[in-house]
């Protein structure tokens, strides 16, 4: 017996396609981040994290470049999801942060842009510190 038409089924299919695009983009971006950062770090032979720095700068450049193309050529929501959330999100979350900050600046929200810069960096460092501290204390309790 044929199923009755269900318009909601099409909506769920669209969401699943977007989720699969996010997963694919994230996987590709993460693999690229690993490859690029490892290659750069080995090539530099210094303890400074040049690998991650290069990924952050490259990702920031690429997200800006691709965003301008997305605006000029009206990329579809699925293409934008694949690129900006998936691929660049997997490659570097720093690129999303820089795009958001630049968007605030372009709309004249300079105060919010500065707050975003300081809050993201200071709170991010604090969160890493607290996470490391909690992790060490948890390991001490487990042992």
Automatic annotation (TrEMBL):
It is a multi-pass membrane protein. It catalyses: fluoride(in) = fluoride(out). GO terms for molecular function: fluoride channel activity; metal ion binding. One of its GO terms (cellular component) is plasma membrane. Its main location: membrane. Na(+) binds at residues 89, 92. It comes from the Bacteria. It is found in: Cell membrane. The chain crosses the membrane at residues 15-36, 48-70, 82-102, 114-134. The keyword Transmembrane helix applies. Pfam families: CRCB. Keywords: Cell inner membrane, Cell membrane, Ion channel, Ion transport, Membrane, Metal-binding, Sodium, Transmembrane, Transmembrane helix, Transport. Na(+) is not transported, but it plays an essential structural role and its presence is essential for fluoride channel function. GO terms for biological process: cellular detoxification of fluoride. Belongs to the fluoride channel Fluc/FEX (TC 1.A.43) family. PANTHER family: FLUORIDE EXPORT PROTEIN 1-RELATED. HAMAP family: FluC (MF_00454). Fluoride-specific ion channel. Important for reducing fluoride concentration in the cell, thus reducing its toxicity. This is Fluoride-specific ion channel FluC. It comes from Parabacteroides chinchillae.
């Amino acid at each position: 017996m044929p199923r009755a038409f269900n318009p909601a089924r099409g909506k769920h299919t669209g969401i699943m396609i977007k989720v699969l695009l996010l997963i694919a983009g994230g996987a590709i971006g993460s693999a690229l981040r690993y490859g690029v950062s490892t290659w750069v770090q080995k090539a530099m032979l210094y303890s400074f994290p040049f690998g991650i720095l290069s990924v952050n700068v490259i990702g920031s450049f690429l997200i800006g470049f691709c965003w301008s193309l997305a605006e000029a050529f009206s990329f579809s929501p699925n293409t934008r999801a694949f690129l900006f959330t998936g691929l660049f999100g997997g490659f570097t979350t720093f690129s999303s942060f820089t795009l958001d900050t630049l968007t605030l600046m372009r709309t004249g929200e300079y105060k919010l842009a500065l707050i975003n810069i300081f809050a993201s960096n200071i709170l991010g460092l604090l969160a890493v510190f607290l996470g490391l501290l909690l992790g060490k204390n948890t390991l001490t309790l487990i042992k």
